[in-house]
Fold this protein.
Amino acid sequence: MDHSEYAAELFVKGYNCAQSVAVAFCDVTGLSEDFSAKMASSFGGGMGRMREVCGAVSGMLMVLGLVYGYDTPGDDAAKRAQYQDVQHLAQVFREQCGSIICRELLGLARPEGIPQAEARTPEYYKKRPCPELVALAAQILEEWLGIPPGCKFRIPTKCGSLILVYFTIINLLDDINLTIIDNSGVCTVL
């Protein structure tokens, strides 16, 4: 299953929109699913159900920052490059959906004003485009990262031995090099 399918599946399982995208890319970020879910937990429902920036967009941009973000204060060139990438990905999402604002995507005149999330019932899924939005955000990011469509990078998170996985995108259009280093230091390149 690719990242977009996995993100939609995670949303249907009960993760919020931001968590769904962030957790779907654990194989790329190297973070655990638990940590990614906690990191993204405040951004669901357009930031804590305030219906501001769509959580799927926030999750997409969190992954972008983890993969290509900068961490040196005063590095204006890196900051500018990061913000350029953020604006590009947000614009691609906006072009396909008409907005990056949660309440606009849901057709709400204003936020509901309560922190309690709605129950995930069949009726909920009929009126909410959220599974499709998390899938789209993941697809946009997957394409931007150069991961070929349909690639299946799901790796079990509960392994008998510690496995660290590093994805190095050698050529954005062609080759992906997968290096696996287990807890004994044995390195395998696929």
Q: What stands out?
A: Confidence is low (pLDDT under 50) at residues 154-174, 181-189.
